[in-house]
Structure formats: C-alpha cells, structure tokens
Amino acid sequence: MFTGIIEEIGTVTKIARGAKSSRVTITAKIIFSDLKLGDSVATNGVCLTVNEITNNTFTADIMHETLKHTSLAGLVSGTRVNLERAMRADGRFGGHIVSGHIDGTGVIRNITKDDNAYIYTIATEPAITKYIIQKGSIAIDGISLTIIHVDNECFGVSIIPHTLQETILADRKPSDIVNLEVDMLAKYMEKLLLGNVNSSSADTTITAEFLAKNGF
User: Fold this and answer.
1) Looking at the structure, do residues 77 and 33 belong to the same domain, yes or no?
2) Global pTM?
C-alpha cells in the first residue's frame, strides 16, 4: 500500500527485455535507507517487487500483463521515474490510499499555466472517468493529486511548483502517456451497490432510480 507522496526520482539504468516481460534496474538514493529484497516500490505508480539490490540500484521484474496496461513498456535507459516505498504503519498519511495497481493509462492533452501552478488536462476512457469526481483523488504516475474538473473524456489536475520539482511531471509534455489509478473507494462502492454484476459485460450506470431502490 502507498500514499501517492513521491519520495524521490530514480533513473532507469538498464532494461533487459524478454519475449513478453522485462527486467528493469533503477538507480536511486533515498529509498535504500531500509530497502530489502521482496519489498514493494511504486515505480511511476506501478507496484514492483525488488529482487536484487546493489549499493545504489534495485532490480525488479515487469510481467507481461503490466507491460500491456501501463506506460512501463516505454521505459528506456535514462528514463526518470517516480519512486515510493510501501507506506509505514507509523508514518504520516499525506496523500490517499494507493494500491499500485494501475486501472489504465491517459494521454496528456494539454498543459496550461495558471499563475504559479500548471493545469494538466488528461484524456482517458469513460471506464476510468466514471470513477472520478471533482475534488476527488487520483494517482497519476503514482502521484496523489486532486481533480479540479472532469467530463466523460478527460479530467484536469492543478500542479503546484513543489510537485513539479519533486516528481517527473516536469518532464511530461502533451501526448505523453501516464499511468492512472482511481480512488479504490469508488470501485468498492460500485461493487457493494451492484453486487456481483460483471461491470465488463453489463450496464453499471448508477442512476437516481437505482439509488432510491437500494435505500439511498
């Protein structure tokens, strides 16, 4: 489990590509203070398991399913990545609950300056935007951010200078692909309201009539 508060930016030093999977080696500094084999590290929001550690690098395997559904397939040597270790039980919870399991990707549509901040507008599919609400939370490349507007095709977030400085969002430009993880509470609520309906094969639109019928 993660919080979406990025600890540091790491750099990919090596990618070993298999037939359908990859092994990535990343250099960093801060996270090695207590990193152990088998630990989880959110890498651009994707939960990866550490299987090798040197003085300043860790290595993790990226399975086929992860490569298909996240932006990690585009990693190359020299790519900068957001890193966060799994949250400590005795630590401050500064972001929101982030699992490291990506729901899908989005494409940066545009970036506009807004006084001292920047507004990133990101296009994605309705299967993701249906879980997004204004002033709600979302993880973009593992960063816990607050939604400022949303419609059926895209949503926007406002990025403060500190976030630009401490994450790879400063590297991003229009047309770049980003990893998205919606607030898991929205998905749990849908499951509870709809029971065992398979959302991939049925209409899961929650209407006023549906809520009234179920006592809301």
Assistant:
1) yes
2) 0.87
